[in-house]
Amino acid sequence: MDLEKMDEFFNKRVNMYDDHMLNEVEGCREGYKRMAEQIPDSTKKLLDLGCGTGLELDKIFRRLPDVEVTGIDLSKGMLDRLREKYNNKKVKLIQSDYFDYNFGIGIFDTAISFQTLHHFSHEEKTILYTKIYKSLNSRGLYIECDYMANTQEEEDFYFAENKRLRSEMGIKGGFYHYDTPCTIDNQIKMLNTAGFKRVEKLWQQAAAVLLVAQK
Q1: Interatomic CA distance for residues 82 and 145, integer angstroms
Q2: CA angle, residues 178, 179, 180, in degrees to nearest 5
Q3: Torsions phi, psi for 74 (to 5 deg)
Q4: Percent of the chain with pLDDT over 70
Q5: CA distance 38 to 200
Q6: What is the pTM of this model?
Q7: Could you tell me which residues are beta bridge partners of residue 72?
Q8: Which DSSP state fits 215?
Q9: Which residues are in the Methyltransferase domain (predicted)?
């Protein structure tokens, strides 16, 4: 198995992505609905991390048609598809690495991520969660629906495999596509470390889990 660079991986799969997520990944179709239900009615500005083609925005726009969305993604192909879908909405799209991009301080009412963060280490996630925390206003909410490991042994296996593959390919850094899901407990600990006061698991279907974190 060869690892592909993250942006190249998704650029190659733009045309099949929506069908794959909706019909082949267990929990996603329901997860989009559940996430949208958790967006507070008061949300005016929404940060969407790893927004892809914007599948999660469909249900959100039905509830909040005037919400202003800032979407960040590495893949130009994915962002182009999202722009085509929602060219009549208030959407600002940024092609960037969300670890490096400056979200600002206290700007957003709500931040979301859907099936995008199961590729990164605890350290990377904690740094990102801290950025998200700071980007939210005083009553801000972060909602994450992602692939999570059932046990610590499962998590350890995927991280070990990722390390082995990178070593075999001589990869020392950068974003490459390989799933390294963390356990729910570890996810909650990282969010607490980043500053979120209350983190709750609200829903789970198979490996898809919905967490809501309150600032």
Answers
A1: 19
A2: 115
A3: -75, -30
A4: 100
A5: 12
A6: 0.96
A7: 49, 94
A8: -
A9: 47-140
Task: Give per-residue pLDDT as tens, 69-128.
Answer: 999 999 999 999 999 999 999 999 999 999 999 999 999 999 999 999 999 999 999 999
- Closest C-alpha among 80, 144, 70 to residue 107: 70
Helices 55-63 + 14-23 axis angle, to 10: 70
Burial grade of 60 (CB within 10 A; 0-12, 13-18, 19 or more): buried
Helix, strand, or coil (residue 66): coil
Q: Angle CA(43)–CA(51)–CA(28) in degrees, nearest 5?
A: 90
Q: Specify whether the backbone of 29 is left (phi greater than 0), alpha (psi in -120 to 50) or beta.
A: alpha
Domain layout of the chain by residue ranges: 6-214
Residue with tokens 């950068």: 174
